[in-house]
Amino acid sequence: MREPIARTAERIAAATPQGRDRALDALRALAILGVVLGHWLVTALVADSGTLRTESPLGHLPELTPVSWVFQTLAVFFLVGGHVAARGHAAARARGESHVRWIADRLGRLFRPVIPLLALWLAATAVLLGCGVPWQTLRTLGTLVLSPLWFLLVLAALTAATPFVARVHPLWPLAVVLHVDLLRFGFDGPPWTGWLNLPAGWLVPYCLGALLARRGPLTPATAWGLLLGGAAATGLLVAFAGYPGSMVGVPGAPVSNLNPPTLAAVTFGLAQCGAAILLLGPLRRALRRPVAWAAVVVLNLGAMTVFLWHQTAMIAVTTGGLLAADLLGHGPVTGLHTLPDGGAWVLARLGWLPVFACALLICGAAFHTYEHSGRRARPRATLERPTRTAHDRTARTRWARPGDGKEARGA
Question: What is the pLDDT of residue 2?
């Protein structure tokens, strides 16, 4: 078994262009895994009087708040997204490709996999309504399935705006977030002003990634400054300015750091970006191993499918477990349908994670083809073949830290 895996990994490594920065793909994969595991760990579907409602262990067990610091990885995804989009747009311009064509191709990749998800859930909703499932339960399930799409809409908007925002310094959107929060919380401004932070907050890491693609790598001292400065700012905002400690939304909480993004979420994201940049060198060295690189390639090839279907996988296991428990005459199953208010729930939920993963694998096997339909032909082992222009050859090495140039050139 080990030998076929090793041979497959070696073929994937051999098919990878030498100039590809594998660490960027690894950061994207880690960000996706963080989102998936975070949702599975902090979301509970509680069975109550014939309906399902959403609860979070963070609302009952505040000592678990640090879990949200580990698994809220969206800033890293926007950092990589900004870098890749800025580099890809520059390469498209060098080829003479129009803005409209480049944007249409990018948006098609983002939204094509959404179609089967929406189609399945429209059909499922009709069937469940016909079976008399309470509206409250349908609303709960629909919210879980559709809520991740906000991220996709923001990413699509920023991607479409890449030709116009690629040269925006990240300090400008950071200043917008600062002033919006000052108006919202300091001067009791109208709540709707917080939604100005939805594009501005995620523009900060997106523009930082574009800046790195344009100007070159940060020095280690600057990356450490981002990490430590962002962490210190976040700690001060939580300790003295009344911001929530959780970096994800908690049902029933008066303020969420994500809905819409707050200054604390943005400074926390900057700390994550600093840590991600510091990880690039170690990741490049680790990904010289064919098996490690093959795992990253496989996850990235199905990244959108994983992101879109992970909540459906959790719902399938949870509702299936509830039906099985009713048939067997048992009550709600710990870790699936019970209130997440104790250590027993946490341990049980950890045990359910492999089951969620198996359900997600089934969803991936069924729907991953939609992620790649309509794409131009390219090597199966890569997500996109870099264009071999002089600009792009320079851009591919720009994330390398001093001393890492050899790895970035694929030597």
Answer: 57
Task: Choose among 199, 208, 209, 194: nearest CA to 161.
Answer: 199
Q: What is the pLDDT of residues 265-304, one digit of tens each?
A: 999 999 999 999 999 999 999 998 999 999 999 899 889 9
Q: Distance between CA atoms of 186 and 192, rounded to whole angstroms?
A: 15
Give the pLDDT confidence of 52-110 residue by residue, as tens digits: 999 999 999 999 999 999 999 999 999 999 999 999 999 999 999 888 999 999 898 88
Could you tell me which of 62, 49, 155, 159 has the C-alpha nearest to residue 104?
159
Look up residue 240 and give its two tokens.
């003295």
pLDDT single digits (tens) 346-368: 999 999 999 999 999 999 999 98
Q: What is the per-residue DSSP string for 168-232?
A: --THHHHHHHHHHHIIIIIS---GGGGGGHHHHHHHHHHHHHHHHHHH-PPPHHHHHHHHHHHHH
Provide the terminal-to-terminal Cα distance of the chain, rounded to the nearest Å: 30
CA atoms within 13 A on the CB side of 46: 15
| Domains in the chain: boundaries | 2-408
- Residue 214 burial by Cβ neighbours in a 10 Å radius (0-12, 13-18, 19+): middle
Please give the structure tokens belonging to residue 90. Answer: 């520059």
Count how many Cα atoms sit within 13 Å of the Cα of residue 38 in the half-sphere of its side chain.
23
Distance CA 247, CA 264 (A): 8
